[in-house]
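[job 4471] stage=fold_predict status=RUNNING
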Amino acid sequence: MEKSAKMIEKLAQEARSAAIRMATLSAGQKNQALGEIAQALKGQQEEIVQANYADLEQAQRENLKGSLLKRLKFGSAKLKEAIAGVASLINLPDPVGQTLRAMELDSGLELYKVSCPIGVLGIVFESRPDALVQISTLALKSGNAVLLKGGSEAARTNSTLAEIIRQAAEKAGMPAGWMSLLESREDVKAMLGLDKYIDLIIPRGSNAFVKYIMDNTRIAVLGHADGICHVYIDEKADIEMAVRVAYDAKCQYAAVCNAMETLLVHRVVAGEVLGQLKKLYDEAGVELRGDEQVQRLIDCKEAKEEDWRTEYNDLILSLRIVDSLDEAIEHINIYGSHHTDAIITEDRQAAGRFMNLVDSANVFWNCSTRYSDGYRYGLGAEVGISTGKLHARGPVGLEGLVIYKWKLIGKGQVVADYSGPDARKYTHKPLEKDCPL
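[job 4471] inference complete, writing structure tokens
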């Protein structure tokens, strides 16, 4: 049943109240709650898997796209990974209360820049139930309250997970209302108008959906619309390495935003590289779409202009032959989504030029685009990947879920003393100390 707009506002109010209390929690209190969550997920594994099985059955009856079915599946192996992710969060430093900068403005007048939670997060994500576990526990560790809306195809799994996590966290002392699960698109629409209570929206979904969110709220939005990732195989690439990386970037898991969607190959090595990859991709069931030059070398479909701008999230790959490193860079900056792009080369200078000129949140040298991930970066999973250039960029983990405040500690100083002919002078001296409050 859909919640009314007034009910969504009430949840947001409760989240705001909870967020104020969460900002003062110690690292020990938050880690204890995370431990309770991990144990609860482990203890109720059968209930979670059964709920997911019911979601999968319904999705298959409704002919859900294959790539979405892969994301939806949340069996014992994925649950085990999710629990390991929660455990890894416990071992990470508390991102809240860190002194980022300290300065003496004058004797007895000290300024501190200190990290603090953002407040209330509104997060809308796709059909991956593991995202709910990652997002809710990252929010908890960073001291943020959160309103969550998952894909309707995962409704049973998400509802089960949310209730287990909420109960375990509150049992460990988290304030009531710190996490709520929304149920429908109408709920999301209501949430977008609550800029009085919600500080940040993080959408994870299609390009059209993310743009809809951005166009229909005054709340700040962080995220990415597309994951059009590239691998460029340079003329000085190690061919064996290039083939291995290009295969992994497409085939290791094609349904995610950091999978390669376009492969660029330098003309000098195109024949050898494409010949080897064609065989491997055929065996993996990858549909290849190449430009005219590619089609002269291997049997594949024609790549059209729209292919360069498409995130397939499936076993489909567009291929293009380029004459130079600069042509590859230009292609990526025109058609890419500023997500993740990689170069394979033994030429250090070429790698440096690529990494400095490609305008993406993640740029790699001699490794798969699939490494673009909060868990693999050691960030304690992620709430999403940001391709913007404000506040956070790339995988958004704990550090991306805190902001900062300025704390000024004085002894009765007034600004009037620093103006006029006998004005006091600011010292602006760096301090090597943490904020005492």
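[job 4471] summary: The domain at 5-223+388-402 is CATH 3.40.605.10 (Aldehyde Dehydrogenase; Chain A, domain 1).
[job 4471] exit 0
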